[in-house]
Design brief:
single chain, about 90 residues, 3 helices, globular
Length: about 90
């Protein structure tokens, strides 16, 4: 249900500001509270690493979809997409 509300809000923002802001809200439309694994792209190596709640840098990790970063709903999903688990 959260995705529905986010999509409605995003549609209103896009309608008000124009389509150029649509790409900012698109990743939120598929997010749910169960999808809490953060797929992060390393700046230096461009390596794809995922962080799950409880890991050392989970809270500091930010998802930037414009850099190919994304949310996953399970570790299996992240591994299947070619991402590796963070070391800490």
């Amino acid at each position: 249900m959260e995705a529905f509300y986010l999509a409605v809000i995003a549609a209103g923002v896009v309608g008000y500001f124009g389509v150029e802001v649509a790409y900012i809200f698109a990743p939120l439309a598929n997010f749910s509270m169960a999808c809490n694994i953060k797929g992060n792209v390393s700046i230096g190596s461009r390596e794809r690493i995922y962080h799950h709640p409880g890991q050392e840098y989970y809270d500091e990790t930010r998802i930037s979809p414009q850099y190919g970063e994304r949310w996953f709903c399970s570790e299996a999903e992240a591994r299947a997409a070619g991402w590796r688990r963070a070391g800490r």
